[in-house]
């Protein structure tokens, strides 16, 4: 199946979904191609999203957003984009498993994956966490670990002292790779550094972590903690299109998500910045508006209008018939028959 759109968003996390929401509501035929999964889908509870209660899981949050963009008129494909190329006419071709898309603009919302340490491990979301800003609040006055050996590990451990007085760093047999200055800071803070590898994990009846046993026979109780082993950014499509990357491996973008390649934007966790749902949604909104500025038909300059031989009422509105009908249905406007009568 081959389709044409003005905007195609690759990736269905909060950033990509917000971009699609804006471009669709601003009158641009939009598609989303989403392979599924992602960091947001792993959330047992939703934190730090104003107006969304914590009993909403990540999958519920995302499914509601998918239904919203479809109601506004976006097309949604559950598929994996394997290749991206610019065509001679300036548009782009995206090849997925069951659909080929030609599009005027591409939005890369492909995210990243946290590097997971080797097992044994607590259950993700029930004792094993990756986002300090999301989950530190859950561990006020609770025993906490931070797993890893980098400077980031040491700093997260020290930051957690703002929330609890029981913080351990679990090296798991690795040597610390943090700097001498960081070592001095760790030694000055009330943090225990545990060298020994993990032997096993104890979970409670509710599935939450209760304790970790180490190979030296010691046992320490924890409510939860953070694994800090870095990230793998999903930049394959960006590299195929020639987008510049940062030294850290993210897609380099301007303030509104524009990449170094014309008509290619990137939003969310695949770009530099805080990995937070509200931040990602803000990036998606800014990119969606920026795309609208680039793609909208009106206003036209006098020179453009003269080159077309003038404008008439038949040339407006610029929104496609498909989106026009969807908007009328969504907002309770005239249906197809009433619209046809009005046009006559």
TrEMBL record:
Residue intervals passing through the bilayer: none
Pfam families, A to Z: Pyr_redox_2
This protein's UniProt keywords: Flavoprotein, Oxidoreductase
Single GO MF annotation: oxidoreductase activity
Basic and acidic residues composition bias: residue spans: 308-329
FAD/NAD(P)-binding domain residues: 5-284
Comp. bias (Acidic residues): 334-344
Region (Disordered): 308-344
PANTHER family reported for this sequence: THIOREDOXIN REDUCTASE 1-RELATED-RELATED
Protein known as: NAD(P)/FAD-dependent oxidoreductase
Organism in which the protein naturally occurs: Halapricum salinum
């Amino acid at each position: 199946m081959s389709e044409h759109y003005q905007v195609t968003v690759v990736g269905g996390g909060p950033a990509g979904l917000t971009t699609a929401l804006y471009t669709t509501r601003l009158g641009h035929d939009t598609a989303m191609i989403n392979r599924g999964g992602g960091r947001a889908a792993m959330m047992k509870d939703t934190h730090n999203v104003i107006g969304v209660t914590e009993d909403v899981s990540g999958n519920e949050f995302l499914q509601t957003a998918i239904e919203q963009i479809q109601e506004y008129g976006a097309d949604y494909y559950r598929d994996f984009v394997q290749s991206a190329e610019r065509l001679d006419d300036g548009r782009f071709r995206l090849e997925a498993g069951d659909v080929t898309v030609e599009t005027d603009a591409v939005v890369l919302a492909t995210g990243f994956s946290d590097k997971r340490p080797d097992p044994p491990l607590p259950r993700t979301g029930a004792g094993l966490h990756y986002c300090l800003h999301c989950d530190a609040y859950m561990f006020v006055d609770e025993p906490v670990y931070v797993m890893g050996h980098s400077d980031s590990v040491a700093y997260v451990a020290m930051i957690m002292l703002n929330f609890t007085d029981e913080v351990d760093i679990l090296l798991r047999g690795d040597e610390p790779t943090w700097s001498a200055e960081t070592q001095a800071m760790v030694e000055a803070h009330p943090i225990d550094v545990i060298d020994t590898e993990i032997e096993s994990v104890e979970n409670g009846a509710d599935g939450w972590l209760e304790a970790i046993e180490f190979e030296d026979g010691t046992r320490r109780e924890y409510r939860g903690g953070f694994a800090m082993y870095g990230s793998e950014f999903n930049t394959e499509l960006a590299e195929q299109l020639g987008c510049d990357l940062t030294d850290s491996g993210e897609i380099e973008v301007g303030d509104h998500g524009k990449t170094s390649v014309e008509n290619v934007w990137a939003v969310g966790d695949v770009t530099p910045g805080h990995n937070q749902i509200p931040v990602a949604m803000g990036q998606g909104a800014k990119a969606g508006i920026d795309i609208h500025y680039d793609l909208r038909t009106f206003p036209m300059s006098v020179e453009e209008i003269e080159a077309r031989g003038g404008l008439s009422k038949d040339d407006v509105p610029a929104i496609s018939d498909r989106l026009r009908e969807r908007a009328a249905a969504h907002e309770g406007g005239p249906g197809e028959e009433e619209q046809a009568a009005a046009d006559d």
